[in-house]
């Protein structure tokens, strides 16, 4: 009876491990999609809102989900405090503070770091072109990660259940 209970616990643990790994992959794709929506919002605000940068970031931050909300509000606060600071460098520092919370793939994180350059352009057209380039790169990253997600999902399930099965054999 104890061995049967142990086998059930092992299979439950292997199912939980597979679910946890798949959830991690889904989280990266979702975070990248949120970043794509953020870039679209930045593009719209930059094109139509003629307000100072800290105010623009605070306004954007109020309408974004976490952790982008905290990122934008922190960037706005630091830009208010350090009016003489280099904007791209300040943006990269703020993004560095939230890197773990964002859970972005490397390519998407690089796009996020380049957003700081958008704020330093004097030409609106140049800034919008850089945002559109970032959006295209993110769309490609999302498509790539989604395709990779399907293959890895099957792999993770097979490996976790196989490990559970082998553990049950060793238990018996």
**Biggest sheet, open or closed, and with what strands and sense?**
none
Silhouette? elongated
Arithmetic mean pLDDT:
83
Q: Please identify the oligomeric state.
A: single chain
Q: Helical element count?
A: 7
Strand content: under 5%
End-to-end Cα distance: 12 Å
Order of helices and strands: HHHHHHH
**Count of individual beta strands:** 0
Given as residue ranges, the uncertain stretches (5+ residues, pLDDT < 50) are: none
Radius of gyration: 22 Å
Structural class: mainly alpha
* Helix coverage percent: over 70%
Q: Your description of this structure?
A:
The protein is mainly alpha-helical and 172 residues long. 87% of the residues lie in helices and 0% in strands. It is built from seven helices and no strands. It has helices at 2-48, 53-62, 68-81, 87-97, 99-102, 106-120, 124-171. Helix 3 packs across helix 4 (87-97). The chain is elongated. The mean pLDDT is 83.
Keywords:
mainly alpha, 87% helix, 0% strand, 172 residues
Summarize the structure.
This protein has helices spanning 2-48, 53-62, 68-81, 87-97, 99-102, 106-120, 124-171. It has 172 residues and is mainly α.
């Amino acid at each position: 009876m104890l061995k049967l209970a142990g086998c059930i616990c092992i299979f439950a643990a292997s199912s939980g491990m597979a679910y946890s790994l798949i959830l991690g992959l889904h989280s990266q794709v979702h975070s990248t999609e949120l970043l794509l929506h953020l870039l679209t919002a930045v593009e719209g605000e930059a094109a139509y809102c003629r307000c100072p940068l800290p105010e623009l970031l605070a306004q954007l931050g109020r309408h974004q989900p976490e952790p982008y909300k905290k990122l934008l509000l922190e960037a706005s606060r630091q830009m208010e405090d350090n009016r003489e600071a280099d904007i791209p460098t300040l943006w990269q520092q703020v993004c560095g503070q939230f890197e773990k919370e964002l859970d972005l793939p490397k390519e998407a994180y690089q796009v996020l770091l380049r957003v700081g350059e958008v704020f330093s352009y004097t030409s609106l057209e140049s800034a919008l072109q850089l945002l559109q380039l970032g959006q295209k790169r993110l769309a490609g990253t999302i498509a790539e990660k989604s395709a990779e997600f399907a293959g890895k999902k099957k792999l993770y399930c097979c490996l976790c259940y196989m490990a559970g099965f082998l553990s049950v054999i060793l238990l018996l």
